[in-house]
Specification:
Largest sheet of chain A: 2 strands, antiparallel
Number of helices of chain A: 5
Strand content of chain A: 5-15%
Distance between the termini of chain A: 12 Å
Radius of gyration of chain B: 23 Å
Chains: A mainly alpha (about 140), B mainly alpha (about 120), C mainly alpha (about 525)
Number of strands of chain A: 4
Number of strands of chain B: 0
Largest sheet of chain B: none
Oligomer: heterotrimer
Number of domains of chain A: 1
Order of helices and strands of chain A: HHHHEEEEH
Helix content of chain A: 55-70%
Structural class of chain B: mainly alpha
Distance between the termini of chain B: 70 Å
Order of helices and strands of chain B: HHH
Strand order of the largest sheet of chain A: 1-4
Helix content of chain B: 55-70%
Shape of chain B: elongated
Number of helices of chain B: 3
Structural class of chain A: mainly alpha
Chain lengths: ~140, ~120, ~525
């Protein structure tokens, strides 16, 4: 779409939205949010970017093919479940570590890595659908 | 509250069935979207509607202090939303493709896979 | 948040005993398929690497399922809950003999499909993602067979359905898009019905764990509308299984995709519907099934006849096979309609046989089409003369699907007819035999018209449907299709000649379904509070 206003406004909006999507992803453990909704916000950001600058630009910007991103997310989620095999607890049991970096406790868990996996799956899969729809509109 | 929600679910289902009986694929798609919402509402109502506190356990406790709302229907609905969303996305792309390749938004004219003039099979050796 | 395991309350909600490696077999098939599917999605552009990874992974899957079957047949049903939450709070995966048998057969079918796809799916199909979709399809199928939670079953149904969409439109010819629209909408309605029924079920029972439902059902039978619930489930699953009044998506779509995809669908999709029907009607609501028995019997008879007569009316061999899938579903429904361990054993045996044989049949006619026969019955190919071995193999499969000895189709038919006669359902027994007869005529006609008739030199090879992409018939037999075909046919013959093991397993599985004490005990410790 050749709109000067959209082209000027898109980069800040898109970067803010991607940042916000990561915020929503990380706060999702105890508050509203999570991988799925965060992923959808990121997809919305990428779609806006695609509308403003064309699909090819988006494909270059995300480096990997959308479906490869989805695959990586799926693998991350599955592996998060399998980690519990080492600790002799059932599949998908949440495991926590809280390393202290510079005096700040950072709680890390398999729950979080699972959610990051979900985020990537949603980003990958829905982006691939959105881009293929936008591509047809262009041509 | 339940009767109101039951009526609303019924209304949604009626609308979606009406739309899905249409020949036009776009209307069928709209019907699918409404159907998903009808079912979500149904799941929600089936989990009992209560005015209670959210099911969050306070720090230092093992079980919630008092009765809480049922969190499970929300989990079910979230799953159902994700699934119906992906379905809708797929069917949308498919309908678009069908419109492009078959040139038809009318199910009556979609006879490529099942041609009408196939003729009878050979009757003799 | 991290919890201390010492709290007294938590011991009632959490699994605290360490989980052994053998228990991981319960979840392993599903997680393995998802993981490999994810890896394959990342290497989509490596055309040669993909089939190798997929075939290796599916071989491992067959081994895993075989080990699981062995484990279950030795020690009874096994349960694992997700995230340490005790049932009915956590999602439970409960594997009994029925689930393990289905899972193993599905894995064998998928392996055969993956090998055959090496020849049938070209580079663009691989780039589009045939193998990742296949692995996710298997994840859905295995998950459906192994789960012990009804909402989880719904989720696996959807995984299965979405990956089947991907496979169905692979190649994007206009006929495929056409078929996919019908397949997509009708299956969406079916799974939504399933979800509606599950919503009501949750409203009535307050639980989604199948073992929990099974043990709570007797207490609720007088007050709750369980009949309505069962009827809804039966309608939803009949639609998935393509039973008579709701079967039209199958002949509209099964003949459109690549032949390997058709073969996989014929082996996997409808059988998942049958599995779910067995699970719900026999394990959860046996009393309601008893009452609905006559309706089910009528549906079974009509499905069988639709399949048999539909097969007779076709000019396209792929559509003919689609109707044979339907008539097989009718036979399996007959067993469910009769109920009782013997009939259910027959249904289970029939389902396993049908998974192997229908896949092999699609592969066989795909191979015939590659050799220049095309899919039309009107065009004689003279294959019998040029490739006698292939024609003979196909004939064996035709015998098997019609239920003639010494192939695997014979035994389940005997079991079902005997169970029907024992139950006094003469009509059902008659319909079963008539269907076998109709199937024999239909497949015999297919063999006569398209294999036996000598080729007419004027029409040979000119403008037939279904030729390979190159446009010229391939005269060489691709080993990657022949090998799975031979193995599946050999399996059918083997089961037909030595049915004892499978018979015993099917009987044992059916008994465990009709008297589910062991199933319940594996989920809830015996004597635990209700």
């Amino acid at each position: 779409m050749k709109s000067l206003i959209l082209r000027t406004a898109a980069p800040p909006i898109v970067s803010l939205m991607v940042l916000f999507s990561i915020f929503v992803l990380l706060r999702g453990h105890n508050e509203p949010g999570g991988g799925f909704i965060g992923g959808l916000i990121a997809v919305a950001a990428l779609s806006i970017y695609g509308i403003a600058f064309g699909v090819e630009t988006v494909r270059r910007a995300i480096v990997f093919h959308p479906l490869a991103i989805a695959g990586a997310g799926l693998l991350l989620s599955t592996l998060s479940g399998f980690l519990s095999a080492i600790f002799h607890v059932p599949f998908m049991t949440g495991l926590w570590i809280t390393p202290v970096v510079l005096g700040v406790e950072i709680p890390l868990s398999t729950v979080m890595s699972f959610d990051i996996g979900v985020y990537l799956v949603v980003v990958g899969a829905v982006t691939s659908i959105a881009l293929s729809l936008e591509e047809r509109e262009d041509s | 509250m339940e009767p109101v929600f039951a009526l609303l679910t019924g209304l949604f289902l009626t609308v979606s069935v009406y739309l899905m009986l249409s020949k036009s694929i776009i209307r069928m798609l709209l019907g699918v979207a409404i159907l998903g919402n009808a079912v979500n509402l149904l799941l929600f109502t089936n989990g009992r509607i209560l005015r209670e506190v959210p099911p969050v356990i306070a720090a230092g406790l093992d079980v919630p202090a008092g009765p809480t709302a049922n969190p499970l229907p929300q989990a079910l609905i979230l799953t159902a939303i994700v699934i119906s969303f992906s379905f809708f996305a797929f069917l949308l792309v498919l309908a678009w493709r069908a419109y492009g390749t078959l040139g038809a938004d009318n199910t009556d004219r979609m006879r490529v896979a099942e041609p009408e003039d196939g003729g009878p099979p050979p009757s003799g050796y | 948040m991290a919890v201390s395991a010492s709290s007294p309350v938590l011991s009632e909600a959490l699994v605290l005993a360490p989980v052994t490696a053998l228990d991981w077999l319960v979840i392993a098939p599903v997680a393995w398929c998802i993981g490999i599917g994810a890896v394959l999605m990342m290497v989509r552009h490596r055309g040669m690497l993909q089939p190798l990874i997929a075939i290796a992974a599916l071989t491992v899957l067959v081994c895993l399922d075989a080990m699981l079957l062995w484990h279950v047949s030795q020690g009874g049903p096994v349960t694992m809950v997700m995230g340490r939450w005790l049932p009915p709070f956590g999602i439970a995966f409960t594997v009994d003999l029925t689930g393990a048998l289905f899972a193993l057969a599905a894995a064998v079918v998928a392996l055969a499909g993956a090998v055959a796809a090496m020849a049938d799916i070209d580079a663009s199909g691989r780039r589009y993602g045939f193998y990742p979709f296949l692995m996710l399809l298997m994840a859905g199928a295995s998950g459906a067979f192994l789960t012990g939670d009804i909402f989880n079953l719904y989720v696996w149904f959807e995984v299965l359905l979405i990956s089947s969409f991907g496979l169905l439109v692979l190649g994007s010819r206009s006929a495929q898009i056409d078929g996919a629209v019908k397949y997509g909408f009708l299956n969406l309605v079916a799974t939504t019905l399933f979800l509606v029924a599950t919503g009501y079920l949750y409203g009535i029972f307050g639980t989604l764990n199948m073992a929990d439902i099974a043990r709570k059902a007797p207490g609720l039978r007088d007050t709750a509308p369980l009949m309505t619930l069962t009827a809804l489930y039966l309608l939803a699953f009949s639609m998935k299984a393509a039973a008579f009044p709701v079967n039209f998506w199958l002949p509209a779509s099964y003949h459109t995709p690549r032949i390997v995809v058709s073969a996989l669908f014929a082996g996997l999709l409808t059988k998942v519907g049958i599995y779910a029907l067995i699970r719900v009607s026999i394990l959860l609501f046996p009393v309601e099934r008893e009452i609905l028995g006559p309706v089910l019997a009528l549906v079974a008879i009509l499905t069988m006849l639709t399949g048999g007569l539909g097969a007779l009316a076709q000019t396209d061999s792929r559509r003919l096979l689609g109707y044979l899938v339907i008539s097989g579903i009718g036979s399996m429904l007959a067993g469910i309609a009769i109920g009782g361990p013997d009939a259910i054993a027959g249904t289970l045996f029939y389902a396993l046989h049908s998974m192997l044989v229908m896949t092999a049949l699609y592969l066989a006619i795909g191979l015939a089409a590659r050799l220049g026969a095309g899919f039309s019955l009107a065009v004689p190919s003279g294959l019998y003369r040029d490739h006698a071995a292939l024609a003979f193999l196909t004939l064996a499969l035709f015998f098997s699907v019609s239920g003639l000895p010494p192939f695997s189709g014979f035994w389940p038919k005997v079991m079902l007819v005997k169970a029907a006669l024992d139950a006094g359902a003469v009509w059902l027994a008659g319909a079963l035999l008539l269907t076998g007869f109709l199937t024999m005529i239909a497949t015999g006609r297919l063999f006569l018209l398209s294999y036996w008739r000598p080729r007419d030199e004027r029409t040979a090879g000119a403008g037939q449907a279904g030729l390979p992409v190159s446009g010229l018939p391939v005269r060489r037999l691709p080993i990657t299709i022949v090998a799975p075909l031979v193995v599946l046919t050999a399996l059918s013959l083997l089961i037909g000649l030595f049915p004892e093991t499978l018979l015993a397993l099917a009987r044992q599985a059916a008994l465990a379904l009709t008297t589910p004490t062991a199933y319940l005990d594996s989920v809830f410790a015996p004597g635990s509070l209700q």
